[in-house]
Specification:
373 residues; alpha/beta; Rossmann fold; 2 domains; 8-stranded mixed sheet; 7-stranded mixed sheet; 13 helices; globular; binds nicotinamide-adenine-dinucleotide
């Protein structure tokens, strides 16, 4: 089989496979076509891809000569019109863009969306949401530290004492936990909210305070993910969050519910009560944001508080982000490539089945089917 690697369009800087991953594919007898300058923004040259055994070709060639096309974001409609690949593989957010998956299914593509990977122990090495979420949490804190006009750590100096920054983190998933660890390393005092009581121990073991709000909906059957909460719970949670927001110097918001709009946890009124110079980094911006003032890909300044809407933080570290993303992909591809280097789709495998969203002319995922009616 032939795997084709597409160049992402700006502002994305990552690429789904680096030359080191091509070396692995070549060991499996897979031919690789790479779109010209695909790795440019991730510091991987065409020469490095060629040295790893790939052919560097045009975008049209990648789309027309590959068995499987690998990318991060969805190719545009005109790409899909000329695409002759059997399989399209990427991170397509199918629960938000369900109609696109339907269109691709009707055109006969088999579509794998790696963000639909079941989150089981066996899947951990393939989990791009975790590898990229980790970068998001790390970068969110560094970005906040850069924007915040004061120290993060406490300092006792001959010129006086500086109090440590107070950080509030909403959502302790992969990004939130890394944000806690990074903020603690920088010396901040950290307080955390999450609706999943299971994360309390992890939060505390990182040295942060976990603020519990009683009565969250049980997420036991949601595969470790959060579920939507009742209006009554959200009101009580908001009241508790308001007490913490007013004291916080920096807020990092990461709260998300897969397939749903992000919950609004911080209101305009709460932001109005924050100290001037405070910073909010909202990494849930792309799914609506956790504050009522968040604008995706923009920084809004309200009453002296900067609210940064940025869900694309992995793109700020394209080299490491692509390295980890590509390794996740290689680990998944092992499941669908046989020893002779041929495509072998075994839908008996729960990870293959769970990640595949379209096959044989139809949408195969029940949640996406429900969304498109
Ligand atoms: P996510 O990005 O979907 O959500 C971030 C966090 O927001 C979650 O912890 C969620 O509980 C929280 N949240 C949602 N609503 C909230 C609210 N109203 N207030 C406060 N917080 C709220 O989550 P994620 O980082 O992708 O992963 C979540 C969990 O999935 C992990 O912690 C883990 O349990 C599980 N997971 C499993 C595997 C695996 O086993 N392979 C891999 C990664 C993650």
């Amino acid at each position: 089989m032939t795997i084709g690697l597409l160049k992402e369009t700006s502002p994305e800087t990552r690429v789904s496979l680096l030359p080191e991953h091509i070396t692995q594919l070549k060991k499996w007898n897979v031919e690789v076509l790479v779109e010209r300058s695909a790795g440019e923004s991730a510091f991987a040259s065409d020469e490095a891809y060629q040295a790893a055994g790939a052919q560097v070709v045009s975008r049209e060639d990648v789309l027309q000569r590959s068995t499987l096309v690998s990318c991060i974001h969805a190719p545009i409609d005109s790409d899909m019109l000329i695409c002759k690949a059997q399989v399209v593989f990427g991170l397509f957010q199918p629960l938000y863009f369900a109609s696109r998956i339907k269109q691709w299914a009707e055109k006969g593509f088999t579509v794998f969306s790696i963000d639909m990977l079941p989150r089981t122990t066996r899947a951990q090495s393939m989990d791009v949401l975790s590898s990229q979420g980790n970068i998001t949490g790390y970068k969110a804190v560094l970005l906040a530290a850069n924007l915040y006009p004061k120290y993060f750590p406490m300092f006792m100096t001959a010129a006086g004492t500086v109090a440590p920054a107070k950080l509030l983190i909403l959502g302790a998933g992969v990004a939130g936990l890394q944000a806690i660890a990074t903020a603690k390393r920088l010396g901040a005092v950290v307080e955390v909210f999450d609706t999943r009581p299971a994360v309390k121990e992890e939060v505390m073991s990182l040295g942060a305070k976990f603020v519990e709000v009683e009565g969250a909906a049980d997420a036991a059957n949601a595969g470790g993910y959060a579920v939507e909460q009742s209006e009554e719970f959200m009101q009580r949670q908001k009241a508790k969050i308001a007490e913490s927001v007013v004291k916080a110097d920096v807020v990092i918001t990461t709260a998300q519910i897969p397939g749903k709009k992000a919950p609004v946890l911080i209101t305009e009124e709460m932001i109005g009560g924050m100290k001037s110079g405070s910073v909010i980094i909202d990494v849930a911006a792309a799914t609506g944001g956790n504050t009522s003032l968040t604008v995706n890909n923009e920084t809004v300044v309200y009453n002296g508080v900067s609210i940064v809407g940025n869900s694309a933080l992995p793109a700020a570290m394209p080299s490491d982000a692509s390295k980890l993303f590509g390794k996740n992909i290689i680990n998944f591809l092992q499941l669908i490539i046989d020893k002779e280097g041929n495509l072998n789709l075994n839908f008996e495998d729960d990870l293959v089945k769970g990640t595949c969203v379209a096959n044989a002319g139809a949408v195969t995922n029940e949640r996406i089917k429900a969304l498109i009616g």
